[in-house]
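Running low. Got one?
___
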Amino acid sequence: MQNNMHTSLQVLLQNNTLPSLCAGSVALVGAGCGSLGNLTLAALKLIASAEAVVFDALVDSDILVLLPETCERYDMGKRGGNVSASQDAINHKLLELAQRGLKVLRLKGGDPGVFGRGGEEALFLARHGVKSQFIAGVTAALGCAASAAIPLTHRGVARSVTLVTGHQQDGETTHHWRTLLALGSTLVFYMGKDQAQKIAASLLLAGADATLPMVFISAGCREQQQLFYATVSTMTAAAKQIHTDGPTLMILGEVVAVGSELQQLLTDIDSGGLRHAVAG
């Protein structure tokens, strides 16, 4: 059976409907959130044929081992609080590799178009005469929510999702936060743990319910994943208790309570507290 699966995978990867790498161009590829399990077939095909790769800090090591042995590798990840490559340096490295006529892979955790600066890189390359393509990946909002059993939308609870960067910008007003709250949308904050106090204060000032549930998801979609539940009023204190390595995502909204209930029910099933009915 294992051989049959391997053969089937090879046939899938040879499918002409999947994207391919061209010499002298760049593929901006989403490696997905967390572990190898969130890698797409399109990404896998391009990884297998890359001649040079520029990857970031969120790409799982199990994904990097899939690269060809002859592939040139450039670790240019941005790591908060540590010395890391500038965006300008990354842009010029991609350009240099493409101008050498290589099949270039820009490998990013999550999705290249969601807080991944993929648009900036594509524009820079295009302005210098280099073509690129986007390959979608499972972004952290989707991957982390699924691994935490939290539905980002739920009938009667949340009809939309808003993805927000946790890095607050100068000039953000109370009106900005009121607009987000007025949507009744699930709010997902990327890179927000260190800004939890400011985010909570802004939300409360804008009229958010202090008891609105939220959760921090650290090392999402990995074996080390941890969930830290809180409310808008307690999220600042909760953030200070998180000392895990890796990125932390924040989900805020009533769907967090839905997910928490589901988690408890699943735990009860595992412990034998609930039994499913079998039609006889």
About this structure: The two ends are 33 Å apart (CA to CA). The beta strands are 25-30, 52-55, 72-75, 103-108, 132-135, 161-165, 186-190, 213-218, 226-231, 248-252. The mean pLDDT is 89.
